[in-house]
Amino acid sequence: MDPKILRHKVENISTLPTIPGVLKRLSTILEKPRVTIVEISSFISNDPALTTKVLKMVNSAIYGFPGRIASVSHATMLLGLNVIKGLLLGVSVFDLMQKTMSGLYEHSLATAIASRVIAQKKNLKEPEEVSVAGLLHDIGKVVLILEFAAEYEQAMTEAARRNISIYEAEKKQFNATHADVGGWLAEKWRFPANLIEVIACHHQPTTAKSAPLETAIVHLADLLTRARGFGFAGEKLVPEVHPVAFELLGLSEQDILEVLQETENNMATAEDIS
Amino acid sequence: MGVTMRKITVDKLEPGMILAKPITGPTGMVMLAQGTELNEKWIERVRDMEIAIVSIEGSPVQAIPEEEALAELEARFALVNDKPFMGLIKKAVREHTKGLYK
User: Fold this and answer.
1) pTM for this prediction
2) Residue A159: which of A233, A96, A98 has the closest Cα?
3) Which residues of chain B neighbour A223 with C-beta distances below 8 Å?
4) Which residues in chain A are closer than 8 Å to B77, comparing Cβ atoms?
């Protein structure tokens, strides 16, 4: 497939017949050039089910202090527009994740938690932003499967048959990967440059220019989540860690153990979010 | 290292269990604090509240036996064992997985 055609399709997501209404409606809001924090906040607050999901996510995966944040307005003030936009997208596509790739929701949630924990260990100023990047890092898979179900299934079969990663299989099938697709979408939805880069580069963390540390974090969080066996992301194998990214993070074996432990604890309370 | 916890339904509560998270009322007010050791009286009160699930201290019950979990872990790492840093990562994940069964 020509990547240009693929990109054009992905960027016109609202017109694709296979994309469910919820994602189209959300896309319309997210792509508005000057959407305000008040608009996003009231969009969430007007939907009780959505409110519950956002608050559970804030209190377990993204923010990590259980029960600390009790209202959407408090969450938006504390976390800022970009994190709330990402959260809104994340909780809205959960059902779609489960429908398109069983286990992808659990994988994404665990990656969000692990990303936040590593970001806190590295004393990053905005661990919540890294967490949102972890939550959304595989969003390209959802859209690829929704629009090209048969082709993607072929890629998954190929990955399993030849013991290659789903990332490699996607390249063969689409001449582009879920990381590319996720990056295009994040750009279309006007997410900040760092978030776009983390999503687009999480498989090749050394290609990140503006956010190499954040990209390395999500790269490792993704890998640890697979290693621990949380959820399913397209293949059963753990990929190799990029050595440069791993050295950049400088984590010891004990650090990794602590990340796994804290992710485990938070997963126990986060799993009923969907 | 953090305290492990598991979530159970209120009908399975037993005296001696320790709350890993506070129990809050509908307004968010804390009714029983984190770290409270449950006795018959508390359990009865909790069952009278409209609460379905409570977090208590202790490892969650795992879906598969330990040997199986460790074998699956080995299989997942099969192609990357000799890659840089993967030995270190596997060791940590292995130790963590074993810890889930303690």
Assistant:
1) 0.86
2) A233
3) 89
4) 227, 238
Question: What's the pLDDT at B1?
Answer: 40
For A66, name the nearest residue in chain B, comparing CA atoms only.
Answer: B21
For A211, the token pair is 């956010």
Cα A48 from Cα A37, distance rounded (Å):
18
* Residue keyed to tokens 């697979």: A226
Tokens describing residue B40 = 């018959």
Please, what is the average pLDDT of chain A?
A: 92
Q: What is the structure's pLDDT at A274?
A: 45
- Chain B residues with CB under 8 Å of a chain A CB are 1-7, 21-22, 24, 28, 53, 55, 60, 69, 72-73, 75-80, 83-86, 88-93, 95-97, 99-100
User: What's the pLDDT score for residue A138?
Assistant: 97
Name the β-bridge partners of B9.
B53
Q: Judge: A238–B22 Cβ closer than 8 Å, yes or no.
A: no
> Looking at the partner chain, which of B2, B4, B76 has a beta carbon nearest the beta carbon of A237?
B76
> For tokens 């000799």, what's the residue?
B82
Q: How near does any CA of chain A get to the CA of B84, in Å? A: 6
* B40-49, long-range: CB < 8 A, 24+ apart: B40/B15, B43/B10, B43/B13, B43/B14, B43/B15, B46/B10, B46/B13, B47/B10, B47/B11, B47/B13, B49/B23, B49/B25
Q: Which of B2-16, B26-40, B70-84 has the lowest mean pLDDT?
A: B2-16
Q: Is the pLDDT of residue A170 over 90?
A: yes
DSSP B24: E
- pLDDT of amino acid A67: 67
At A56 the pLDDT is 82
Lowest-confidence range among A40-54, A80-94, B86-100?
A40-54
- pLDDT value of residue A21: 86
Question: How many CB atoms are closer than 10 A to CB B38?
Answer: 20
Q: Which of A238, A242, A248 should one mutate to test binding to chain B, selecting the residue with the greatest count of B CBs within 10 A?
A: A238
Q: Do A269 and B55 touch (CB under 8 A)?
A: yes
